[in-house]
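Field guide to reading this record: the first block holds the primary sequence, the second block holds the structure written as discrete tokens, and the final block holds curator observations. Each block starts with its own label. This record concerns Prepilin-type N-terminal cleavage/methylation domain-containing protein, catalogued under organism Hydrogenimonas thermophila.

BLOCK 1 — SEQUENCE
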Amino acid sequence: MKQAFTLIELIISIVVIGLAFSAIPLMLQQESKKEIENIKQEAVMIAIIKAGNILSYAWDEAIAEQRELGVKDKVLDVKNGLSKYDRYPDINSTYRIGHFKGDSRRSFYVNQIFASEELQMDINDTIPDDMDDLIGDIFISGDSTNEHEYKDKYKISTTMRYVQDYNMSMPSDNSTNIKEFTVTVKDSNENIITSITAFSTNIGQQDLLIRSWE
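BLOCK 2 — STRUCTURE
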């Protein structure tokens, strides 16, 4: 009876150990999936932050130059935009259709100032001052052993182009009123994890009306 009981114990032990070892690959697989998911989430966050950073810069080098002179952002003239977005009724106007007259309203510059034809960092710039200057690649180092660091080394690539005012899926060789940029995040093996495309338009800015309280 004792031998039979011992045999049953042995069988049960073998079954339990077998189940335990069969579960280990599943646990490792789940951990690997979790790590991959964490990397994807990090990559998406990096792409969103980068896109937001790009949108915070001046729309064009010409606008950045006017900022240095103390002039607020205004609408630029373009070479290949839809005519209905040009100055109206003629070239001497500082407004386009849809603009409201007023000092604090959106408008063109008094004199014609055209948007850049080549989307790249200006040769005279040492630091970025408009969104075109952010075209290119940057790298982020990671440390998977540190919970406060990124899980992997990422490569962030930014491309930018003009697209047609009437069809944003079509690129334009000359300046238009719409710039399209794409932020692509790759892992340390150059595999694309995520890619985000956004658009920025040539609309200038308006001033908020201020009321003083005494």
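BLOCK 3 — OBSERVATIONS
Residues 2-55 form the longest helix (54 residues).
The chain has one domain: 40-201.
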